[in-house]
Design brief:
Blueprint lengths: L33 H7 L3 H17 E4 L2 E4 L3 H12 L3 E6 L4 H13 L3 E6 L28 H11 L3 E7 L3 H8 L3 E7 L10 H4 L4 H4 L3
Parallel strand pairs: 3-4, 3-5, 5-6
Antiparallel strand pairs: 1-2
Bound molecules: iron/sulfur cluster.
Length: about 220
Amino acid sequence: MDFPRCDRCGDAGCKIGEPGKFKNCPTNVSEIKREEIIERYHDPETQALMQTAAKVERGTLQPVNGVLTPIRPRISEIMAFADEMGWKKIGVAFCLAARDEGIKLTKVLEARGFEVCSVICRNFSMKKGEFDIPKEDCIKSENESVCNPVYQAELLNEAGTQLNIVLGLCVGHDMLFTKNSKAYVTTLSVKDRMTGNNTIAPLYSGFFTEILKKY
Ligand code: SF4
């Protein structure tokens, strides 16, 4: 099988209903039929999410002086999405480093009428040594506390949250949280210690200039 490589496509013809000119277009690389994928979207739950996503997008892009303009931020979109889905109970899985934002977010959610459950990453005060993390991979020692994304997810599962919001979790911990969460997960922000959580800033700066010379 050829791999899909949309990054190497010249014209993104799919945007105007004309995909497939490029050998590595998803249209050309698999035996899976278009109709089979459409059928997947007819699953009632999947359909509800897709229809809600469209409705939320439409609600965000409103005409302002004749120009379609985003009129609300992602936090408001998440709340609008939950409203449309009939979700009343929302979980927030936040990092210690994003505690201030987590507190503000939960206040906003509650003010909008949602029932909120929140779990910080350091719950249970787990130590790195308890997870057999080698000393050389600890910042100071195996006794330092470590994030506990599995329990973050399990507590929200027990609480019966209908949607979980990730806020500032570390790379890897976010994966474990998502894998263990029973409710759908949406990400409000991820941790990027260097850029103040502006994860794609390095793509706009010269940060990767040297490595790209090898491309
Ligand atoms: S789907 Fe096909 S047409 Fe669209 S960007 Fe990918 S390769 Fe290009």
